[in-house]
Amino acid sequence: MLAALVIVFREVFEAGLIVGIVMAVTRTVAGRGWWVGGGVAGGTLGACVVALFAGALSAAFSGVGQELFNAAILGIAVVMLAWHNVWMARHGRELAAEMRAAGQAVVAGSMSLMGLAIVVGVAVLREGVEVVLFLYGVAAAEGGSGLGILFGGAIGLMLGIAVCALTYYGLVSIPSRYLFAVTSFMLALLAAGMAAQAARFLEQANVLTRLDTVVWDTSWILSDRSLPGRALHTLIGYSDQPTAMQLVVYLATLVVIFVLMRLLAPPRPVGAPAR
Amino acid sequence: MTTTRNIATMGALVAMLLCLAPSALRAQEAVSLQLSIKNKQFQPRELTAPANRPIRLTIKNLDPAAVEFESVTLRVEKVIAANSEGVINLRPLAPGRYNFFDDFNPQNTGALVVR
After folding, report:
1. Does the residue B3 lie in any domain?
2. Which residue among B13, B66, B81 places its CB closest to the CB of A82?
3. Distance from CA of B56 to the nearest CA of A (A)
4. Into how many domains does chain B fold?
5. Is residue A42 within a helix (H) or strand (E), and if so which, with residue range?
6. B86 backbone dihedrals φ, ψ, rounded to 5°
7. A134·B84 Cβ contact <8 A
8. Is B97 contained in some domain?
9. Would you say residue B51 lies in a domain?
10. Do A140 and B65 touch (CB under 8 A)?
11. Distance separating alpha carbons of residues B73 and B67, to the nearest angstrom
């Protein structure tokens, strides 16, 4: 039971962090509960479907279907995060100003909310597939005695939800004038980390073969497999043995996001004519 | 309008990431290795492979439970569903002993010996 608790918690933990951050980012947007909830529900449903076809997916593309799939959905999440950040850099200020007045801002805001809902869906889907496969396997293999394991899994799931709540309340306790800067920075790091992870999946699939030397090995200080290692892995994309390619992808993603945010940010005086 | 511009720039971002990929799958002759999991045990417990050759490792999970094949030194993590198989492509390796285990059942361990 304890093993199941640990395994399920470990998977739910990462999704919990991401959902918590997205909740904090969207805290002022009306109807965000539906979007985030929709992302979680869609991700869960997707996880069940993917788990059902796991065998076929694994066999696809001469055995690297799973890696390509993971890289692809991570890629989608990276684009959505980048898009959200750039969009907020452009519209965030006016959005905040109009928020109280008009429903129009909420409609516009829902465009970028959809992006974040997709990010939530991807996070839940990726971690959910492993949980579903693990628990289903246990239930199938152990039959009745698997109940304890399913119970452990349920506790692991609840602990993961607790992580989500902690992340959320931790972030919203930041004074709101800093919160936007903090969360957009966090989303950028999240995107860069996901991009580096996608690169790793492509390396594992032998699609990316250049720059594959491991740049450093810090597994003796902070292993990817430890809980703090996993937290940092999700939040800032920490890896204890990154390849040069992963670093390049990580930095390139950060640079692209920040440059786009800077380029597309509105000119300072709000009433100034457009170029 | 801005949205289309944003989408275009995002497209450029994706395209840039894709350009970093070299011309797809490297066609170098790989050594084929087989590993299976039965009754929560790797069979064989130890695999041997030549050094400096790419390896194509096929893992057959014969159990009704999923396994997560993982190796810290090989930098591999892969879930293999119940009664199915997965393939892992490894780059040419330096001689040494590379341990692996089932992350869903960590007592189940094995090793790839490269010489």
Report:
1. no
2. B13
3. 10
4. 1
5. helix A32-52
6. -135, 160
7. no
8. yes
9. yes
10. yes
11. 18
Q: Chain B interface, mutation test: which of A112, A132, A204, most B Cβ atoms within 10 Å?
A: A204
Which of A254, A86, A102 shows the shortest CA–CA distance to B9?
A86
Cβ–Cβ of A86/B6 closer than 8 Å? Answer: yes
Query: In this complex, is the C-beta atom of B27 within 8 Å of any C-beta atom belonging to chain A?
Result: no
Residue A272, domain member (yes or no):
no
Closest CB from A79, A87, A141 relative to B64: A141
- Is A129 within 8 Å of B80 when comparing Cβ atoms? no
Residue B13 in domain: no
Is residue B102 classed as helix, strand or coil in its secondary structure?
strand
Mean model confidence pLDDT for chain B: 83
A90 to chain B: closest CA residue: B2
Of the candidates A66, A111, A206, the beta carbon closest to that of B89 is on A206
Give domain status of residue A275, yes or no.
no
**A204 and B86: CB-CB below 8 Å?**
no
Looking at the domain assignment, is residue A22 inside a domain? yes
- Between A125 and A210, residue with greater pLDDT: A125
Domain of residue B93, CATH code: 2.60.40.420
Domain around B103: 30-114
Q: Is the pTM of this model over 0.95?
A: no
User: Would the CB atoms of A82 and B87 count as touching at under 8 Å?
Assistant: no
* Helix or strand (DSSP H, E) at B77: strand B76-80
Strand runs (DSSP E) across chain A, as ranges?
A: none
Its domain, for residue A32, covers 2-264
ipTM, interface predicted TM-score of the complex: 0.78
User: Which of A35-39, A144-148, B77-81 has the lowest average pLDDT?
Assistant: A144-148
Number of domain units in chain A: 1
Average pLDDT, chain A: 86
| Residue A271 maps to a domain | no
Residues of B with Cβ-Cβ distance to A214 under 8 angstroms: 75
Sheet holding B96-102, edge to edge: B46-49, B109-114, B96-102, B67-71, B76-80
pLDDT of residue A88: 82
Beta-carbon contacts of residue A157 (< 8 Å; ≥ 6 apart): A8, A9, A12, A131
